[in-house]
Amino acid sequence: MRYQLIGVNHKSAPLEVRERLAISEKNLPDCCRDLTAHPGIEEGMIISTCNRVEVITHTSNGCADLRGFLHDHFHLTAAELDSHLYEFREKEAVRHIFRVASSLDSMVVGEAQILGQVKEAYATARAVGSVRGQLDQLFTRAFAVAKRVRTETAVGSSSVSIASVAVELAKKIFGTLQGKNVFIVGAGKMSELAARHLMAHGCASIFVANRTYGRAIGLAQRFNGQAIKFEDLYNACDKADIVITSTGAPHAIFRKEHGEQFLSRRKNKPMFFIDIAVPRDVSPEMAKLDGIFAYDIDDLQQAVSSHVADRRHEAELAEAIITSEVERFEARLHTLDVVPTIVSLQDHLETIRQAEIDRVRGRMGHLTPEQEMAVEALTRGIINKVMHTPITTLKTAARDSEATTVIDVVRRLFNLHDKEKGPASQANREASSKKEVGSGH
Amino acid sequence: MSLLWLRFALACYFIGLTYAFFALTRTSDLFSRIALHAASLGMVFHFVSLVELFLAGHVVWASVHNGESLLAFFSMTFFMIIYSIYQTTSPGVVVFPIVFFLTFVAAIDEQPVLLTGFVQHKGWLIAHIILIFTGYAALVLSFGASLLYLLQERRLKAKKPSSLISFLPALEVIDQIGYRSLLLGFPFMTLGLITGSVVAMSTYGHIDFADPKILLSILMWLVYMIMVFTRWNSGWRGRRAAVLATCAFVAAVVAWAANYFSTIHRFVAS
Fold first, then answer.
1. What is the DSSP string of A344-369?
2. Among A298, A300, B203, B224, which residue's beta carbon has the most beta carbons within 10 A?
3. Of the partner residues A290, A303, A307, the one whose CB lies closest to the CB of residue B239
C-alpha cells in the first residue's frame, strides 16, 4: 500500500491560497497527465473543489515528492504554500479519502455534493489513464464506504444549504409546496437559487419584482413566471405564499402595515418571507404578526448550523464505520499481496505432482480409469494437505501485516523465484485473486 | 361482557397514551406504528363492546358511561380518518389521552346511572346521541388541532427547527385537520340538537329554555357557529382560533356536566 496524498482544504488554507491552487474542469485532464509524469508516481488523481484541492497518488516507493509537483505546477514557492499543506500516507491517506467521499471532511458535514465531485474527478482521471488498478481499488471502495455511511447513519439525512433549508422551512409551514406561489423581490443570484429549489419541489408559479423592470422580465422568463412592476409590489404580493426578498434597499420594504394588508386579503393564510437582504427587507414588527413567518439570513444560517450540530453525533458513528472500513481495506490489500505466492506454490506443487505421476506411470503399466482416478485423488490429497499449512499461514500473516516476511520464507522454502510468470500461473493467479477478493469481504 | 371488551380496548389505548407522552420528547416511527396498531385493535374491542350494548336492547345508551365510551369511539374514528388522509399520528398526542380518559371512566364499573323518561322515542334518541357525539368528537379533534397549531406556530416563530416537538406535521396540514373536523362536526352537532329538541318536545310537549342543559347546549352551539363563521369568513387561525376552540371545548364540557343539574336531561341511578 503505497498511497500518498497531499492537499489543502477549507480548514488548512484561506480562500486566497485555495484560489491559486484551484484547477478548472478544462485543465484537469492535463494536470492528471502531468502528475503521472512526475518521478515516482505510478497513478494519480486530483480533486479540485471550492473547499479543497487534493492530489492522491500511488507511488513506486511510497515517498514521491508531491510538494515538488505542486510547487512546479502552480509556480508557488515553499514559503507560500507549505504551511497550508497536509500530507497523508498509506493507511492515513486511505482514511482521508474515505472521510472526504463520505462528506465527513466537508465544511458542512454530510452535504451530498462532495461525493459527486469526487466521482467526477475519478472519472476524469480514469479517462486519461492516470487512475488504474491501485487507485481504482481505493476509490471504488471509497464510494462504497460513502454509500454505507449514508445508509447506516443519518449524517446526510437533511439538506443544509441555505436554499434547501428555505425549502425545508417552507415545507414545515405548507406541508407540500405543490401549487404554492413564489414572489422574488430583487433579482439576485441567491434568490434565484432559492426560487429554483422551490420550483423543483413543486411550486406552481413565480412572480418577479425588481427596481429595474428589464431584469425582472429576464428572470421571470427563465422560470416561465410573471414580471411585476416594483410600484405594484404591495398590490400583488399577497398572491404569493413564499416571498424571497433580497433588495439593496437601506430600510425595510415590508413593514407591519403591509403584513396586515396581505393577511387580510389572504384571509389570514400564512406567508413565508425568506429575507436574504442585508440590511433586512422585512421589519421585525411585521415578522411578529400571526401568520407571517420571516427568516432573515442569520436565521437561515442558524438553521444550517443547527443541522450541523445535529449531525455531530451521526458523524461519530460515521467515523467508526470509516475506521472499520480502513482496516478492512488494508487487510484486503495485504491478502492481495500474498495471492501471487499462493498461486506460485500451487503451480509448483502441481508441476511436481504431474512430473512424479508421469515418472512412475511406465512402471505401473496399464491403469484402468478407476485406478487413474484413484491415483489422481491420492496425489491431489497429499498436495492439498502439504499446501494447507503454508497457505493458511500466508493468509493469517496477511491480516497481521507480516506478509512480507512470511512471503519471503515460503518463497525460499519452496524455491518459487521464477515460476509465477508463466501464462498458466497468470490465469491461475487471476482466478485465485478473484477468490481472495471475494473472501476478503 | 361489554365491559370486558371495553377493558381490553382500554389496555390497547394505554399504549396510545404512552405514545402521546413519548412523542412530546422524541420521534420514533416504530413507536408510532405500534401505537397505531394498538389503537386500531382497541377500536375493534371497543366496537364489539358497543355492539353488545346495542344488542342488549335497553336504552342503556343514554347512560353517562356509555356516552363517554361512545364519544371515545367516535374520537378514535375521527383520528383514524385523519390518519388515513394525512398519514400523521400527531393528533394522537391530544386525542389518545382524552380517549383513554373517557374509556377509563367508562370501563371502571357497570352503568351506575341511566337517563330516564325517553323510552318511547328510542329511534330519535339514538339518532340524537350518535349525532351529538360525532359533533363532540369533531370538536375534540378541532380543539386538539388548534393546540398543535399553536405549538407549531410558536416553534416556527422561535426559529429553532431542531427543538423537541419536531414530530408535528406542517402548519397548513394541522390547520386543515382542525378546519375539516370543525366543518364536519358542525352539521352533526346541529342535527344532534334538533333531534334532541324533537325528543324533548314529544316527551314534555315544550322546551324549557331556562334549563341549564338547554342553555349551555345552545351556548356551545353558538360558539361552534362563531368558530365556523370566523374561520370561513376571515380565516381565523393561530391564537384567535385556539381561544375560540378552547371556549367551544369548555362549553361542551360544561354542557356535558349540566346533565347532573338539568331537570329534563338528567341521569339518575338505575
1. HHHHHHHHHHHHHHHHHHHHH----H
2. B224
3. A290
> Residue A350's closest CA among A376, A332, A373?
A376
d(CA A165, CA A161): 6
Q: Of B131, B146, B133, whose CA–CA distance to B177 is shortest?
A: B146
List chain A residues with CB under 8 Å of B152: 172
Asked whether A294 and A265 are in contact (CB, 8 A), the reply is no
The grid cell for A364 is 505401473
Q: Is B164 on the interface with A (CB under 8 A)?
A: no
CA–CA gap between residue A375 and residue A397 (Å, rounded): 33
Chain A residues near residue B230 by CB distance under 8 angstroms: none
pLDDT tens digit string along B41-60? 999 998 988 888 777 765 55
- Reduced to 3 states (helix: H, G, I; strand: E, B; else coil), residue A276 is coil
Catalytic entry in A50, A63, A203, A237: A50
Residue A301's SS3 state is helix
Does A272 have pLDDT greater than 90?
yes
Q: Using the beta-carbon criterion (under 8 Å), do A173 and B240 form an inter-chain contact? A: no
Q: Are B70 and B30 in contact (CB under 8 A)?
A: no
Angle in degrees, 0-180, between the axes of helices B122-158 and B212-234, rounded to the nearest 10: 50
pLDDT at B174: 86
C-alpha torsion sign, points B117, B119, B120, B121: positive
Query: In this complex, do B238 and A290 lie within 8 Å of one another by their Cβ atoms?
Result: yes
B139-169 pLDDT, tens digit each: 888 888 888 888 888 888 887 655 545 667 8
Mean pLDDT of the region A236-259: 90
In this prediction, residue A181 has a pLDDT band, given cuts at 50, 70 and 90, of: very high
Host domain of residue B161: 2-269
Interchain contact B67–A (C-beta under 8 A): no
Please report the pLDDT score of residue A133 as a whole number. 84
Chain B positions in Cβ-Cβ contact with residue A290 (cut-off 8 Å): 153, 237-240
Report the C-alpha gap between B149 and A187 in whole angstroms. 34
CATH number of A3-158: 3.30.460.30
Quick check: is A63 catalytic? no
CA distances from A97 to A195, A211, A328, A333 (A): 34, 48, 14, 16
Q: Which of B88, B159, B229, B233 is the mutation pick for testing A, counting most A CBs within 10 A? A: B159
Average pLDDT over residues B172-179: 85
In 3D space, the residue among A156, A147, A142 whose CA is nearest the CA of residue A54 turns out to be A142
A166 → chain B, closest CA residue: B161
Segments of chain A assigned to CATH 3.40.50.720? 162-303
Number of domains, chain B: 1
Q: Which residues in chain A are classed under CATH 3.30.460.30?
A: 3-158
List the single residue in B with minimal CA-CA distance to A304: B161
Neighbouring residues of B250: CB distance < 8 A, sequence distance ≥ 6: none
Answer whether B159 sits within 8 Å of A295, measured CB to CB: yes
Q: State chain A's mean pLDDT as an integer.
A: 83
Chain B residues with beta carbon closer than 8 angstroms to that of A266: 235
Cell 479519502: give the residue: A97
Architecture of domain A162-303: 3-Layer(aba) Sandwich (3.40)
Beta bridge partners of A6: A55, A87
B109: helix, strand or coil: coil
Nearest to B66 by CA among B97, B107, B123: B107
Whether A439 has a pLDDT exceeding 50, the answer reads no
What's the pLDDT score for residue B153? 85
Residue type, A104: L
Positive or negative torsion for Cα A56, A59, A63, A68: negative
pLDDT digits (tens, 9 = 90+) for B215-248: 888 888 888 888 888 888 877 777 778 788 888 8
